[in-house]
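To the wet lab folks,

You asked to see what we're planning to order before we commit. Fair enough. Below is the target structure as C-alpha cells, and below that is the sequence we designed to fit it. If anything looks off to you, flag it before the synthesis order goes out.
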C-alpha cells in the first residue's frame, strides 16, 4: 500500500486579491508625490496631491458662509418660537443654510478629487508621473496590489466537477522558484460551464507571506483530493480487453510461479501508475515486464521483484538481488 490521492493538474495566471490602477479624475498639476516605486502602503495614505490653492480659498469662504447662514437661521428660529418672526422668513433662512452647506460639501468633494489615496493596504507599482506634471482625467499615476493573498483562476474541465469543492487543498509551482511548492485552497467555483470549452473557472487563493508571488506569474497547479493508501501498479502491467482491465499475476507453486489472469477494477491514475480498487491483494506479484510473452496457466520463473526502490535493469543485473516475474503490487 502506498500513499495516493486524486489530482487535477491545470495552469493559471496569478492576480492580486485586490488590484487597482490609480488615475487622475481632474485636470490639474501634480504638487506632491508621497511614495516611491514598490512601497508598501496602508489604506487611506495620500499617494499624490494636486494643486488646490483656489479650492482651499473657496473652502474657507464656504465655511464662513455656512457659519453665517446657520447663525441667521438660529436667530430667526428663536424669534419664530416667540411668535415675532414669520414662518416664511424661517423657511427662507433654512433654505439659505442648506444651500451654504451643500456648496461646502461640493468644494470638499472637489478637494478630495485632488488627493489620490490608497483604497486598501498593498504595494504600489512604478511611478508614472513627476511633480509638476499636468495630468488629465484617466492618466495613470501608479498601480496598487494587495498581494498578501494571491488569486489564481484555473480553467478545469467540467468532467471533474464532482471532485471540486471549496476548501480543496492545492499545491502550485512556478519556474521562477522551481524548488518551491506553494500551498493553497480552492476558494470558489464558477456557477457556469463554458458551452464552447466545457470547462469552468475555479478560483484558488494562495497565501503570499514572503511576497515571492507576483501578479502575472504563470503557475502550474495540482488540486488534491481524498488522500489515502492504495494498491498501485505500473500502467505497463494493464491488459485491457474492451471495457475491462486485466493483469497477469505470478502465483507461487512449489519453487516456481504459475501465471494467473486477474480481472481488476482501477481507480485514479498518476504518471506511470494506476490505482487498483478491486482484484488484487497487497503482496501479489503482478507481471509488469514480459506480460505479452506469457499465457494463463503457464509456469514461469521470477527474475526480479521490483519494489520501486531501484531500476529493474539493476535488479536483473545483480544476481544477489534477483528473485527470478518482474512485478509488484504495493
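Sequence we intend to order:
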Amino acid at each position: 500500500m502506498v500513499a495516493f490521492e486524486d489530482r487535477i493538474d491545470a495552469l493559471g495566471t496569478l492576480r492580486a486579491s485586490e488590484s487597482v490602477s490609480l488615475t487622475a479624475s481632474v485636470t490639474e498639476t501634480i504638487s506632491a508625490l508621497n511614495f516611491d516605486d514598490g512601497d508598501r502602503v496602508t489604506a487611506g495614505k495620500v499617494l499624490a496631491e494636486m494643486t488646490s490653492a483656489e479650492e482651499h480659498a473657496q473652502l474657507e469662504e464656504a465655511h464662513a458662509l455656512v457659519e453665517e447662514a446657520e447663525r441667521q437661521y438660529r436667530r430667526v428660529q428663536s424669534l419664530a418660537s416667540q411668535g415675532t418672526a414669520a414662518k416664511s422668513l424661517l423657511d427662507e433662512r433654512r433654505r439659505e443654510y442648506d444651500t451654504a452647506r451643500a456648496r461646502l460639501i461640493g468644494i470638499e468633494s472637489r478637494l478630495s478629487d485632488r488627493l489620490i489615496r490608497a483604497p486598501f493596504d498593498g504595494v504600489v507599482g512604478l511611478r508614472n508621473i513627476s511633480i509638476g506634471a499636468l495630468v488629465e482625467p484617466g492618466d495613470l499615476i501608479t498601480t496598487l496590489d494587495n498581494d498578501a493573498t494571491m488569486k489564481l483562476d484555473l480553467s478545469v474541465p467540467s468532467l471533474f466537477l464532482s471532485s471540486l469543492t471549496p476548501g480543496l487543498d492545492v499545491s502550485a509551482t512556478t519556474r521562477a522558484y522551481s524548488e518551491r511548492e506553494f500551498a493553497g485552497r480552492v476558494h470558489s467555483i464558477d456557477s457556469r460551464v463554458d458551452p464552447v470549452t466545457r470547462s469552468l473557472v475555479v478560483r484558488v487563493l494562495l497565501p503570499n507571506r514572503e511576497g515571492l508571488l507576483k501578479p502575472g506569474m504563470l503557475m502550474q497547479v495540482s488540486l488534491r483530493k481524498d488522500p489515502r493508501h492504495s494498491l498501485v501498479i505500473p500502467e505497463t502491467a494493464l491488459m485491457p480487453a474492451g471495457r475491462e482491465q486485466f493483469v497477469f499475476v505470478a502465483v507461487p507453486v512449489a519453487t516456481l510461479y504459475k501465471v494467473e489472469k486477474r480481472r481488476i477494477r482501477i481507480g485514479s491514475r498518476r504518471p506511470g501508475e494506476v490505482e487498483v480498487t478491486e482484484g488484487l491483494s497487497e503482496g501479489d506479484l503482478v507481471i509488469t515486464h514480459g506480460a505479452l510473452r506469457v499465457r494463463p496457466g503457464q509456469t514461469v520463473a521470477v527474475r526480479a521483484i521490483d519494489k520501486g526502490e531501484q531500476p529493474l535493469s539493476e535488479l536483473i543485473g545483480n544476481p544477489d538481488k534477483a528473485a527470478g516475474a518482474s512485478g509488484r503490487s504495493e
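Structural context that might help your review: The first helix runs from residue 53 to 81. Residues 319-328 have pLDDT under 50 and may be disordered.

Thanks,
Computational group
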